[in-house]
Write a structure and sequence with these properties.
This protein is an all-alpha fold. It has one domain (1-63). The protein has four helices and no strands. It has helices at 8-19, 25-37, 39-60, 68-83. Helix 1 (8-19) packs across helix 2. The longest helix is centred in the middle third of the chain and has 22 residues, at 39-60. The chain is elongated. The N and C termini lie far apart (68 Å).
């Protein structure tokens, strides 16, 4: 019988496997049991989910182009910041 209690290191590894869809039923149960008792890993799981969601959203907009007006406005803002104006 496999060990039910996971270390935090193994739990975070399992979270990565789950993101890739490569977690077995046993590993899922072990991870779920660990997350019920470990608040730090639960927080890590929530942060990872947020990063994954935002990364996917950012990727959706990676081909979006700025208008010339926006580019000029950003250039002025950068210039103001770097020159102290």
């Amino acid at each position: 019988m496999k060990q039910l209690i996971l270390s935090c290191k193994k739990a975070t590894y399992y979270m990565s496997l789950r993101e890739e869809g490569k977690l077995s039923v046993t590993q899922r149960l072990q991870l779920r049991a660990h997350l019920t008792v470990c608040s730090l890993c639960k927080l890590f799981q929530q942060q990872t989910a947020l990063i994954t969601k935002n990364a996917a959203h950012a990727h959706d907009h990676s081909n979006t182009l700025l208008s010339n007006e926006k580019k000029e406005e950003m250039g002025r803002l950068i210039k103001d910041i770097t020159t102290g104006n």
